[in-house]
C-alpha cells in the first residue's frame, strides 16, 4: 500500500529531516504518513483510519478519491497530460468559461496558475501595471502565500520572514475585530476607526494600486471582519480608483455555506475588481487562478505564460469537481451541516475554561483557545488538543497568526451529519482531556 514496506514512518521522518527544509511545517510529534483516502476519511501507513476535518488544508473540497474526479484525471492523462498555453486546451477554455460565469465579475477573464501564491502574485502584477504603482494595501494578520511578493504583503509576521519586498505595503486595520487597539469598540465604532485609519494611510506615499483582502482570514484563524467594514473600505478606495482584490483561496467554491464566494458576504460593495482562487477547485490537483475585468487582465503589454497553469489534467479535475460540487449542492450542505457542527461545538465548548471563542461560517469553523481565565492565546493548548484529537481518530488544523491558538475545522463539503456528530464528540473529549 505504501513505502512503509521499505521503512517505517519514523524512518521516513528521519529521511525527511535530512533532506527537506527545517521550515517546512509538519503537524504532530510523530508526523503521520497518509497513504490513501475515501470520502471524508484518510488512512495512515500504520493502518489507522482518521476522520478528516482539515481536507489537506481545505483542498479536498468534495471528497477524497471522488470517483468522478479520479476518472476524469485518468482519462485526460491517457490522452495528453500537458500541452502548455501555446496550444489550444479544451478543458482550460471550458473551466475558464464556468469560473468566469460564476465569478460575478462583469466581462471576466480568467488566468490559471498552479497555486494560490502564484495567483496572488499575478493579481499584484496586474494591479501594479494597471495603476502604475507598486504600493499595495493589505490587512493585518492576513496570509497570501510564500513568494517574495506574497510574503511581502502578508500581514502575519509569523509567515513573512522578510521586510525586504519588491512592493511597498501599507497594513490596514480591520482583519481582526477582537484584538488590537480597537478591541474595546463596538462594531460601528470599529468600522469608523478603521476607515479613518485607511483614509490616513491614503494621505501618505504614492497612491496604492490595490487592496488585497481575504473575506474570512484563513491562516489568521478563521476571523471575519464586522459587517459593513469591507463595504466602507470599498467606497473610500473606489472613489480613488484603487482596485479591490478578493483573495478567495480559502473562501471560494461554497466553503462558507451562505455564499459561493466570500466577497458575496460583503455584497453591498459589488464584485471585486479581481478575485484569486486555488485550493478546493481541483480537489487536491494544483489549480490556482485570477479572475479580473477584461480591462484589468489585458493591461499587460508583455507576453506572459505559466507553463503548468491550465494544464489539461488539472483542468479536467477542476471541471469534474466543480460539476459534482454544483450538482450535489455542496454549498448548501456546508451551510446545513456546518450550522449543526457549529452549534454542536458551541455546546461542547460551553464551560470549557480555555475556549475563548467558537466561530465561523459553513464548513470553515474555528475554536480559539486561551489561558484559562485570561485573554492570552494558548498555542500550547491548541497543539495539545490537536494531538488528543489525532489520538481519538480526528485530523484538524490550527492557525491564528502569531500565536497559532485557533483550532481550524474545514472538512470536505460532503460531510454528513453523522460524521459531524462523530468529529464533534472526539473534539469534545480532546478538549476535556486538555
Ligand atoms: C488566503 C490564502 N491565500 C493564498 C494562499 C497561498 O496558496 P498556495 O499555498 O496554494 O500557494 C493561501 C494558502 O494557505 C491562503 O490561505
UniProtKB/TrEMBL annotation:
Gene3D superfamilies: Aspartate Aminotransferase, domain 1, Type I PLP-dependent aspartate aminotransferase-like (Major domain)
Cofactors required: pyridoxal 5'-phosphate
Keywords noted in UniProt: Aminotransferase, Pyridoxal phosphate, Transferase
CDD domains the UniProt entry points to: OAT_like (cd00610)
The protein's Enzyme Commission number: 2.6.1.44
Transmembrane regions: none
Molecular function GO terms recorded: alanine-glyoxylate transaminase activity; pyridoxal phosphate binding
Subunit structure comment from the entry: Homotetramer.
Family per record: Belongs to the class-III pyridoxal-phosphate-dependent aminotransferase family.
Name of the protein this chain belongs to: alanine--glyoxylate transaminase
Species in which this protein is naturally found: Streptomyces mesophilus
Amino acid at each position: 500500500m505504501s513505502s512503509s514496506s521499505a521503512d517505517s514512518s519514523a524512518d521516513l521522518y528521519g529521511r525527511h529531516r535530512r533532506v527537506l527544509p527545517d521550515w517546512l511545517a509538519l503537524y504532530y510529534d510523530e508526523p503521520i504518513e497518509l497513504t490513501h483516502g475515501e470520502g471524508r476519511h484518510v488512512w495512515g501507513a500504520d493502518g489507522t483510519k482518521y476522520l478528516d476535518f482539515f481536507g489537506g488544508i481545505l483542498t479536498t473540497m468534495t471528497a477524497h478519491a471522488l470517483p468522478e474526479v479520479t476518472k476524469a484525471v485518468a482519462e485526460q492523462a491517457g490522452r495528453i497530460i500537458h500541452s502548455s498555453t501555446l496550444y489550444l486546451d479544451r478543458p482550460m477554455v471550458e473551466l475558464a468559461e464556468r469560473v468566469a460565469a460564476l465569478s460575478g465579475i462583469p466581462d471576466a477573464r480568467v488566468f490559471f496558475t498552479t497555486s494560490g501564491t502564484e495567483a496572488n502574485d499575478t493579481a499584484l502584477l496586474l494591479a501594479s501595471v494597471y495603476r502604475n504603482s507598486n504600493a499595495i494595501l493589505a490587512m493585518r494578520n492576513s496570509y497570501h502565500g510564500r513568494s517574495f511578493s506574497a510574503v511581502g504583503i502578508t500581514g502575519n509576521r509569523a509567515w513573512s520572514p522578510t521586510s525586504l519586498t519588491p512592493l511597498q505595503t501599507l497594513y490596514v486595520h480591520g482583519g481582526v475585530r477582537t484584538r488590537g487597539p480597537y478591541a474595546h469598540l463596538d462594531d460601528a465604532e470599529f468600522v469608523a476607526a478603521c476607515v479613518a485609519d485607511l483614509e490616513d494611510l491614503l494621505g501618505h506615499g504614492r497612491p496604492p494600486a490595490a487592496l488585497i483582502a481575504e473575506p474570512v482570514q484563513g491562516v489568521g484563524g478563521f476571523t471575519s471582519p464586522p459587517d459593513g467594514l469591507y463595504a466602507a473600505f470599498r467606497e473610500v478606495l473606489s472613489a480613488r480608483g484603487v482596485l479591490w482584490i478578493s483573495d478567495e483561496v480559502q473562501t471560494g467554491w461554497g466553503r462558507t455555506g451562505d455564499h459561493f464566494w466570500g466577497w458575496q458576504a460583503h455584497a453591498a460593495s459589488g464584485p471585486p475588481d479581481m478575485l484569486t482562487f486555488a485550493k478546493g477547485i481541483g480537489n487536491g490537483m494544483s489549480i490556482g487562478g485570477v479572475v479580473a475585468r477584461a480591462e484589468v487582465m489585458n493591461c499587460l503589454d508583455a507576453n506572459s505564460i505559466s507553463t503548468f497553469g491550465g494544464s489539461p489534467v488539472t483542468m479536467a479535475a477542476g471541471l469534474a469537481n466543480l460539476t459534482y460540487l454544483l450538482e450535489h449542492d455542496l454549498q448548501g450542505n456546508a451551510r446545513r451541516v456546518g450550522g449543526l457542527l457549529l452549534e454542536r461545538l458551541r455546546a461542547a465548548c460551553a464551560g470549557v475554561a480555555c475556549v475563548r471563542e467558537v466561530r465561523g461560517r459553513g464548513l470553515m469553523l474555528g475554536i480559539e483557545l486561551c489561558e484559562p481565565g485570561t485573554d492570552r492565546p494558548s498555542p500550547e493548548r491548541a497543539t495539545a488538543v490537536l494531538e488528543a484529537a489525532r489520538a481519538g481518530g480526528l485530523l484538524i488544523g490550527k492557525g491564528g497568526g502569531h500565536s497559532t491558538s485557533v483550532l481550524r475545522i474545514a472538512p470536505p463539503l460532503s460531510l454528513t451529519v453523522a460524521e459531524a456528530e462523530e468529529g464533534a464528540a472526539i473534539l469534545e473529549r480532546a478538549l476535556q482531556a486538555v
